[in-house]
Every structure is written in C-alpha cells, then in structure tokens.
Design a protein that fits this description.
The chain has 391 residues and is mainly α. It is built from 21 helices and two strands. The chain is globular.
C-alpha cells in the first residue's frame, strides 16, 4: 500500500496544475506568476490576489476560498454573455471575475449573488414588459413618463432579487444536486436560510416604498403579484409548465405599468400585451431549461423542456407566433403608428433566428440564445416608442 501511494504521488507531481485541480477541485491554487498578477476589469488594473479578500469572512467558513464569486454565481456549465463555454466535455473552466469581486465589500457579496446582481439578464426580462406598457400608455406624440420608468426600473431590481431569494430558500435542497446551481449562496452554505429570509424582508420593505409612490389602483395590483412571486418556485414540483407560471409572474408589469399611468386598465390593450409577454417567456425559458434537463430528470423536477422533448422547436415556434400576433393586436388597439410594425417585423426575425439556430443539446448555446432576449425586448420598446411619438 505504501509503495502504491509513493507511485501515485510521483505521478501527481508530473501533472500540470490545471489537471491536478480537476482531480482535487478544492485544493489551494498554485502561486500566480507575476506576469499575470494584474487583472483588468472595465479597463482598470486590479491586483489579482493569491488569497481572495473574502477568505477570512465568518460567512464563508468551510467554503472553497479559491473560487471567485463570479464562479459561485453560476456553474461550471454556464455562460452569460462572457463568451466562455463551460460544457463538461471542455473540462473545468474557472469563471472570470465579475464586478462583484472588484467593487463590493466581502460581507455584501453573498447577498448580491443571492439577488443575482451579477446576472442582469433576469432584470432586463422583468423590466421590458413594464417599459412597453408605460410607453404605450404615454400621450400620443409625447415621451413616456421618465419618473415611472425610473420607479419601475428600481422596482424590477428589488422584485427580481426578492424572487431569486424566495427561489433559493425553497429550492436549497434541489440546488445542491444541480451542477448549474450548487454554488448559489444558500445551497452552498455561504448564507443561512435565516439570513436569506432577513434579506428577503429587506428587499420587500424597499419595494413597498416604491409601490407606495404609485396610485391606489396600482398599489393593489402590484401587491397582488406577490402571490405569483412567492409560489412560482413550487411549480416545478407540481407541473411540467413552470415556464408558463413564470410568464404570468415576469410579465405582470405589462398590466401594472399601464395602471400606474392611467389609474385603470384597458383590456383591449393590456391583455394582448400581457399574453404576448407570457408567450415570449415560454420561448426563452424553455430554451434556457434545456441546460438543466438532465439534472432535472435526476432530481425529479419538471419543465417544458422535458415536456416538449424533441418537439421543443415546434412548440416554441407556436409560442413565438402567438407572441408577435398579440403584440400586433395590442399595438393596433393602442393606435400606434406604422413605425411600430417595422420594429415588430425585426423582433419576429430575432425570435426566428433564436429558434432556428439554437442547439438544444449545447448548454452554452442555449444560454447565449436566452441572454439575447434582452435585444428582443429593446426592439419592441423602440417600436412602441417611435410608434407612440408618431401617432
């Protein structure tokens, strides 16, 4: 036995550092050469530390200190606009540092990760339906209410963060079994469930401050969305359609934005807009869910990716057509000018490109197509803006 260990030690010393870390992933990192001791973030030089500044934090006792917060916020199989593919067949690839590593104090970073501040795509997907509705409710020939856009932008940050916190609290036992989510703050032990609950209360308190600045009609409508936010994480246990429930939740701003401006709802305009958002969510989140389909099977949770299987592209094509059709109906009822429809054609082309080119067997490509939906939202917003100014 002693001879076997001696031979194994000699072989291990001949391995390159990256290979050794792939065998022992929580081993201490090797010394960083002086030539690579400087990291550039947003064009500014930041010293690369051999031991991260958060390593001594009592919040992170027992956690692998060589992992960056950027790598903890996702998984080794995830990429979100950083251009680094992390598929298992490529081997372990450490995520590049995010702005959280550079600019936030160690005690705050786990909470920022819990709110997914390092992943702005979720914020965009939540905020765009709000901006669509506010802009559509503007007076013809005038810009949308800037104050409302600002309030809803701040509200989107808080509501999205609160939703992620609820999700991580309820899913902590599932997240540890899924490659993409096992390093999330609560699942990994960086934060306790009690700390997460306190942070949730803090976010909801700030959100209430924003909600109280709206009219009474909007306050009631906005408060009613909390049921959707809090119950969404349970849907993956109950139905193969959690993406549809996410659509109902994420697109509530299509109703609330109009109500905040008009103090009422016009069903002919806001209901098709809301339905379009739900169909859009079914497109992008079904594509996104294909990243986790193998893990979902293993842990026993459900998704439209598993429900549709090999027919996914057929299903999401139908949802994309329904999305564009409802957007056209909403714009027609709102009497938007012809400019809106030129942008709508471009948006339809964007959805068509996503669906036709996505490789559903590639986690990296599914994630790239998912992230690209921020541009779909921007195209629709631009169309509504120009269509309202010209009407």
């Amino acid at each position: 036995m002693a001879l076997w260990f001696a031979r194994a030690a000699r072989k291990l010393r001949r391995l390159p550092p990256a290979a050794a870390r792939s065998i022992f992933p929580f081993a201490s990192p090797p010394p960083i050469p002086s030539s690579s001791s400087i990291l550039y973030i947003f064009g500014s030089p930041i010293p690369r530390l051999s031991r991260p500044p958060w390593a001594g934090s009592p919040l992170l006792v027992g956690f692998p200190h060589h992992l960056s917060f950027a790598s903890l916020s996702g998984s080794s199989n995830e990429t979100e606009g950083d251009g680094v593919a992390r598929s298992p067949e490529d081997g372990a690839v450490e995520a590049p540092p995010s702005w959280l590593d550079a600019y936030l104090p160690p005690s705050v970073r786990p909470y920022a990760l819990l709110a997914r501040l390092d992943k702005p795509i979720g914020l965009w997907l939540l905020a765009w339906p709000c901006t669509w509705s506010i802009t559509m409710a503007a007076t013809p020939g005038h810009l949308p209410d800037i104050k409302m856009l600002t309030l809803f932008g701040c509200g989107a940050v808080l509501l999205r963060g609160a939703g992620c916190t609820v999700n991580d609290l309820l899913d902590r036992d599932i997240d540890v079994k899924v490659e993409r989510t096992k390093y999330r703050p609560i699942a990994s032990g960086m934060l306790s469930p009690f700390q997460g609950l306190c942070f949730l209360g803090f976010q909801l308190l700030l959100g209430l401050g924003i909600l109280l600045q709206l009219n009474t009609y909007s306050q009631i409508l906005g408060a009613s969305s909390l049921f959707l936010v809090s119950s969404y994480p349970l849907m993956k246990r109950l139905t193969f359609w959690p993406q549809a429930y996410l659509g109902l939740t994420f697109n509530w701003g299509a109703l609330l934005g109009w109500a905040a401006v008009k103090e009422s709802l016009d069903p002919a305009i806001v209901l098709p807009l809301y339905a379009a958002g739900v169909c859009w969510t079914l497109v992008y989140d079904t594509i996104y869910a294909h990243q986790d389909k193998e893990d979902d099977k293993m842990v026993g949770v459900k998704s439209t990716a598993l429900r549709f299987g090999s027919l996914t592209k057929n299903w999401v094509t139908g949802f994309a057509i329904a999305c564009i059709g409802n957007l056209a109906l909403s714009g027609y009822n709102a009497e938007l000018a012809w400019q809106y429809y030129t942008f709508l054609i471009a948006a339809a082309g964007h959805l068509g490109w996503q669906i036709s080119t996505v490789d559903l067997s590639s986690r990296a490509d599914c994630n790239r197509k998912f992230v690209s939906n921020k541009w779909f939202g921007a195209i629709i917003f631009s169309g509504i803006l120009f269509g309202r100014l010209a009407s």
